């Protein structure tokens, strides 16, 4: 099923007619639904589009931190980041109740365990070619003998698993392992694929590598709550996302993070 088809059917069915009436603070019942432990546990992966540790201070910074802190402020509880190395572990956390809100690419598998908002951001997925590899365009990638590094169960994995005809996917467990492939001759990987903000950052640290022009596809990124949580939690998070887009919070967070290859998703 294509992204746009299941998005119509699977994204939380909360239609937002306007953001002006959104509560700054939720009702006690909604607050308990959104943050049942008395703090807002916000889950994300250590990636450029979500959040990374500042090399100088060790402090987590990025969109997930900015948006998570603002949502926690409105709910009236402390913000607590919950960082997962890769999507499978984060998805497992939804099932075990280890977090309250997650920022993640939206797809059908994840929508089976999470109730998503509409996307707050759209992410271009692309290719980064290793130094010394002669691949020049995205159309040159899907050829026999080409090996593509990808994070297991990431958006790129889901998409390329169903569209590649000739190239071979080399799956790794985390994004840290994915970027490590650039310096590993043993892996014999020609290109890696993920969101373009991460690829640009990796290319800056890998002399001779280059991000190819164009995009493979555009991945919708949303906020979600564990499926089965009170409906009020999903509705409140969905309203927050629409207001964050309308009031420029998402745009400001993108600019602070210095992200390239992303745009604010349209209002719903």
Average pLDDT over all residues? 90
Indicate the CATH architecture of the largest domain: 3-Layer(aba) Sandwich
H/E series: HHEEEHEHEHEEEHEHEHEEHHE
Low-confidence stretches: 6-23
Biggest pleated-sheet summary = 11 strands, mixed
List keywords for this structure.
D-Maltodextrin-Binding Protein, domain 2, eleven-stranded mixed β-sheet, 268 residues, alpha/beta
Quickly describe the structure.
It contains ten helices and 13 strands. It is α/β, with parallel strands linked by helices.
Characterization of this structure:
With 268 residues, the chain is of the alpha/beta class. It has 10 helices and 13 strands. The strands form 2 sheets. Strands 1, 4, 5, 6, 7, 8, 9, 10, 11, 12 and 13 form an 11-stranded mixed sheet that branches. It has a two-stranded antiparallel sheet with strand order 2-3. Helix 2 crosses helix 9 (231-246). The chain starts with a helix and ends with a strand.
């Amino acid at each position: 099923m294509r992204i746009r088809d299941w998005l119509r059917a699977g994204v939380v069915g909360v239609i937002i007619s306007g953001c002006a009436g959104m509560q700054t603070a939720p009702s006690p019942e909604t607050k308990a639904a959104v943050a049942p432990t008395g703090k807002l546990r916000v889950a994300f992966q250590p990636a450029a589009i979500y959040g990374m540790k500042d090399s100088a201070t060790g402090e987590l910074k990025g969109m997930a931190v900015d948006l998570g802190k603002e949502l926690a402020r409105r709910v009236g509880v402390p913000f607590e980041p919950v960082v997962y190395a890769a999507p499978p572990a984060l998805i497992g956390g939804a099932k075990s109740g280890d977090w309250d809100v997650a920022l993640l690419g939206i797809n059908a598998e994840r929508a089976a365990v999470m109730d998503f908002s509409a996307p707050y951001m759209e992410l271009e997925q692309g290719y980064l070619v290793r130094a010394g590899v002669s691949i020049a365009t995205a159309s040159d990638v899907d050829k026999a003998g080409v090996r593509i590094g990808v994070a297991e169960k990431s958006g790129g994995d889901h998409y390329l698993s169903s569209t590649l005809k000739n190239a071979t996917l080399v799956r790794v467990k985390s994004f840290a392992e994915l970027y490590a492939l650039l310096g590993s001759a043993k892996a014999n990987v020609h290109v890696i694929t993920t969101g373009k903000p991460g690829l640009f950052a990796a290319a800056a640290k890998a002399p001779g590598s280059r991000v190819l022009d164009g995009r493979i596809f555009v991945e919708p990124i949303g906020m979600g709550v564990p499926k089965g949580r009170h409906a009020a939690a999903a509705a409140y998070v969905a309203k927050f996302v629409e207001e964050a887009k309308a009031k420029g919070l998402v745009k400001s967070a993108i600019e602070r993070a210095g992200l390239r290859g992303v745009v604010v998703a349209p209002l719903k």
